[in-house]
Write a structure and sequence with these properties.
The protein has 498 residues and is α+β, with helices and mostly antiparallel strands. It contains ten helices and 17 strands.
């Protein structure tokens, strides 16, 4: 029909038939070759125009229509589990299928309270109300990860109970925020097919110093930081000094990322040692916080001579691969105090004890990674924390020293000056001057690791994950505007899994 309207001068107009006395003859019996070429070209043009018009104006079925499915309630929980539509093509258990309206977003009537705007995926964990003593884990945060897509793990939901009405900004509940930014489409699949795992330790510089930082304040940097991370797309970013709003913003700008963490000041949106992770590469199994301090110190209180409450956050991730689970990794992320010399030493001792306990515990088959801003150099008289953590008993190795990069900046903290920073003084009592001859002796941001230990009792059939650092790097690049994403350089390590 479109061709008849668009091309009125078809074959009938060139061969006008005249019927006379039951006889038909053509008036233009012998057209020239030029005329034939013009006719053929005109016909092809009409055909092409018809295709274009059809593709533009005819209605098309939306992607969301193909994802329609009724709500699926999980036995033993009080909420519907929702998953992002842009990853709905992968094989998932029935309980994880999404609930959409025709726009591709969750209908407002089906959103749990606390899920803002047009969020199309939700991950929640809740902390219990008890306040832990220092030196013991605070509260285990069972994570309901929307991308746990291996059918054999569906049973894990049976012991998880989450009340969506408890979500909120009390530092104890988390939701993945609106995600309106979409990065490279093929990055996730490439990561899943790989046997590599990229891990960062990255002090983001808090949002609480806007006036002091001026043009380097978080509000001026945050878009650039999101682009910076999206360019590299590590599987896991272990952050220091980040707050809940900061991590919510980044997770909302990075396709496939979620975050977890616990405010160091219960009930407030204070700084935390958090995690920003790619949910298509890592599935969060458990997460909890531990406050540094002598026995009897409650959550949120100061420990030893520290100026601020300090925590380390522990997370256990399953590594997702093309063929399912590639093993598990137990990550501890920390930020030691910048003033308290005793606090740094005692905190390092507590971390060392936790690493050794984990090697004998129920997750012993998981490789262990320890990251953080330790506010302590690797060399000199102020290197107590490093010496404790890399002692033979912990089994921890320094990835930067096992696989050193070709170029190593003199410091990982640079106070927004980049490579021009003279690494002599850190913050507070941190002395970066008397550190020795090693080219990384002034580094206060580290990524340490140890391999898993086989243990048939851990439900992993006695298997243990072995990590091999194949590339270490201090990323010294700047943003598009020439400024830096933070006052620390991120430490990046690529591990090979075996």
């Amino acid at each position: 029909m479109l061709g008849q309207h668009e091309c009125p001068h078809g074959e009938a107009s060139h061969h006008l038939q005249v019927e006379t006395d039951q006889r038909t003859f053509a008036q233009d019996v012998a057209p020239s070759k030029k005329t034939w070429f013009l006719r053929i070209g005109f016909g092809f043009g009409c055909f092409a125009l018809g295709i274009v018009c059809t593709s533009v104006f005819l209605p098309r079925a939306s992607h969301a229509d193909s994802l329609q499915t009724p709500p699926h309630h999980v036995q033993g929980t009080s909420m519907v589990v929702l998953r992002a539509p842009h990853i709905a093509s992968r094989q998932v258990p029935t309980a994880f299928m999404p609930v959409h309206d025709k726009s591709g977003y969750i209908p407002a009537s089906q959103k749990p309270s606390g899920l803002r705007g047009r969020s199309n995926r939700l991950k929640v964990f809740r902390l219990s109300g008890s306040r832990p003593k220092a030196g013991s884990t605070s509260t285990i945060a069972k994570a309901l990860d929307p991308t746990r897509q291996v059918a054999s793990r569906a049973s894990m939901l049976q012991d998880v109970s989450i009340d969506p009405t408890q979500m909120g900004g009390d530092g104890a509940s988390r939701a993945v925020p609106d995600n309106d930014y979409f990065g490279p489409a093929n990055t996730a699949q490439a990561a899943i097919e790989s046997d590599m795992l990229d891990v960062w330790s990255f002090n983001l510089r808090t949002e609480f110093q806007e006036k002091i930082d001026g043009i380097n304040g978080w509000s001026e940097r945050r878009e650039g930081v999101a682009d910076f991370i999206n360019t590299h797309r590590p599987a896991l970013v272990c952050t220091q000094e980040a707050t809940e709003p900061m991590l919510e913003f980044l997770a909302g700008r990075l396709e496939g990322y979620a975050w977890a963490g616990t405010s160091r000041s219960p009930g407030k949106k204070d700084e935390m040692a958090g995690f920003l992770y790619d949910t298509r590469r890592l599935s969060l199994q458990e997460s909890w916080a531990t406050w540094f301090g002598p026995a009897g110190t409650e959550a949120g209180q100061l420990g030893w001579d520290a100026l601020y409450p300090r925590t380390f956050e522990t997370a256990i991730f399953q590594i997702l691969g093309e063929d399912g689970n590639q093993g598990c990794v137990r990550v501890m992320n920390s930020h030691l105090d910048h003033e308290g010399v005793n606090a740094r030493r005692h905190s390092a001792e507590l971390l060392a004890e936790e690493v050794q306990k984990a090697a004998e515990g129920p997750w012993s088959g998981c490789a262990q990674i320890l990251t953080g801003d330790f506010n302590s150099p690797k060399g000199g008289s102020n290197a107590g924390a490093y010496k404790v953590l890399t002692s033979e008993g912990t089994g921890l190795l320094d990835s930067l020293r096992v696989e050193p990069p070709a170029e190593v900046p003199s410091s990982t903290i640079h106070k927004f000056e980049g490579l021009e920073f003279e690494a002599k003084l850190g913050d507070g009592s941190v002395n970066l001057q008397d550190v020795g001859e090693d080219n990384d002796a002034r580094h206060i941001d580290w990524v340490l690791w140890r391999d898993g230990v086989p243990n048939k009792a851990d439900g992993n059939e006695g298997k243990a994950l072995v990590l091999k650092p194949v590339r270490s790097e201090i990323i010294t690049g700047s943003l598009d505007n020439g400024r830096y994403p933070s006052d620390h350089f991120p430490v990046s390590v690529r591990f090979q899994l075996s």
